Amino acid sequence: QDINLSVAPDGLALLFDQIVTDPEGDSRLQTNAGEAISASQIWLLIPPVDDEPPVLETLPFVGIRPQWLP
């Protein structure tokens, strides 16, 4: 499993993605190590401003290596 992080340009939120690999799989999508990507998830974390616990929200779409647009 491979996890990447992208910080919003304003510093107010984080995007995480987790890639699940399958060494036996045959996929055009591959990690830098050459392993086939079988699935992925993207999460959004907006750090709380008060004493509330942080909430990690699973986003309703699939992708890899998310990046914020400037």
What does this molecule look like?
It is a single chain. The chain is mainly beta. The chain has one domain. It is built from no helices and 4 strands.
Sequence-ordered SSE layout with sheet pairings:
Blueprint: E1 2-7, E2 14-22, E3 36-45, E4 56-58
Antiparallel strand pairs: 1-2, 2-3, 3-4
Key terms:
single chain, 70 residues, mainly beta, 4-stranded antiparallel sheet, 0% helix
How much β-strand is present in the residues?
35-45%
The helix-strand sequence is EEEE
Structure summary, number of beta strands: 4
**Helix proportion range:** under 10%
How far apart the termini lie comes to 28 Å
Which strand order spans the largest sheet, edge to edge or round the barrel? Answer: 1-2-3-4
User: Helix tally?
Assistant: 0
Category by helix and strand content: mainly beta
As for the number of domains, it is 1
Q: Sheet with the most strands?
A: 4 strands, antiparallel
Low-confidence stretches: none
Instruction: Based on Cα principal axes, name the global outline.
Output: elongated
